[in-house]
Design a protein that fits this description.
This protein has 1 helix and 23 strands. It has 348 residues and is mainly beta. A hairpin with a 5-residue loop joins strand 3 and strand 4. It is globular and about 50 Å long. The N and C termini lie far apart (68 Å).
Length: 348
């Protein structure tokens, strides 16, 4: 029997493989939405200027509180110096100042802290202060659970209900200090359309709730779809939820905040990968409203440093004109801070 391969067949096989590889590479490299009409690019500060704190800890959702400070939460680590003696699955901290002159302190809380590595322990996926109350979404809780604090993170209470359909890694849309500058009296929540924070999805889902009714499950409404005039349609039935953002197999963990200087919503989304803390990419999508229409302000498959599994632009650290901001991200398992300059279409 002749086991040799005919040259023409071999060439055809190799050529087909090259085409397949090229198609897959191109598909992974292409953002799902057109370029932003406002932000044409993002210029990052040199790697040498990245602030690194809290070695060994990750996550870092953030909110601007009524006392003027930023509150955050970390996962699978010992927080800021002086480090906690025990590694925490969920720890809390307060960040003072403005980059590069910042400092941070751990907030010890028996009712807020949890232990357990990875999926075994609850972790914060979103923080928001509204009218002096600090709210926190806890993921890895089948699927997620809301808790709140009346004393800036020292003691916590939990709702007696959970999201059991989708919303496995919810985050809050943040506006200004203590929710000042919000577009209306609602709070907005986003997550990949999955019950787990560890699974990428084809779409992002969205919910809203009156800001004084966050603890009431029956007050939540879910984004269903946009009208031809880009007006959102809401439903009380979570089973009728629709995608507020779509990117097949690439909707993962995220952080979103409002840039008042540019009047744009900035949604930083991590691209899923084997180890995004140490290598990989992310995107920044922007829109004139919390529900879109979305455009792409920045997209990179491989950043020049580890992008981290999460990232967000704290509103406190956005310049008044909106052109400069600081990205907080969990790259290389640190509280990492990097300055960004938004290059605008109006500059051309």
């Amino acid at each position: 029997m002749n086991h040799s391969c005919h040259p023409s067949k071999l060439l055809t096989f190799l050529f087909s493989g090259i085409l397949l590889f090229a198609a897959l590479w191109c598909a992974s490299a292409q953002p799902p939405y057109p370029k932003s009409p406002v932000i044409v690019d993002v210029k990052w500060a040199p790697v040498s200027q990245i602030i690194r704190m809290a070695k060994g800890s990750d996550n870092w959702p953030m909110t601007w509180a009524d006392d003027g400070n930023l509150y955050t939460a970390y996962g699978d680590g010992n927080g800021f110096k002086p480090f906690t003696e025990e590694k925490l699955s969920l720890g809390l901290a307060c960040v003072f100042g403005f980059p590069p002159d910042i400092r941070a302190e751990n907030i010890r809380s028996k009712s807020g802290e949890t232990i357990g590595d990875g999926k075994k322990g609850g972790k914060a996926s979103g923080l928001l202060m509204v009218d002096g109350l600090l709210y926190m979404w806890i993921r890895n809780a089948n699927n997620s659970q809301l808790s709140w604090s009346q004393d800036h993170g020292r003691t916590w209470e939990k709702c007696d209900w959970k999201f059991t359909e989708s919303f496995g890694c919810p985050t809050f849309l943040n506006f200004g200090r203590d929710y000042q500058g919000a577009r209306d009296d609602y709070v907005y929540i986003y997550s990949q359309d999955s019950g787990s924070a560890y699974d990428a999805a084809d779409g992002m889902v969205m919910a809203r709730v009156p800001k004084d009714q966050l603890t009431r499950r029956d007050s939540y409404e879910f984004f269903e779809k946009l009208s031809p005039q880009n007006a959102p349609r809401w439903t009380k039935n979570i089973d009728q939820r629709g995608a507020v953002f779509e990117f097949k197999n690439n909707c993962y963990r995220s952080g979103i905040s409002y840039n008042p200087g540019l009047k744009r919503y900035l949604w930083r989304q991590t691209l899923p990968g084997d180890a995004p803390r140490f290598k990989g990419g992310f995107a920044i999508y922007d829109a004139p409203e919390p529900w879109g229409p979305w455009t792409t302000a920045y997209f990179v498959d491989q950043w020049d440093v580890g992008p981290g599994e999460t990232g967000v632009f704290p509103v406190k650290w956005i310049s008044d004109d909106g052109r400069f901001a600081y990205l907080v991200f969990s790259g290389d398992d640190y509280f990492s801070v990097r300055k960004a300059e938004f290059i605008l279409s109006s500059d051309n």
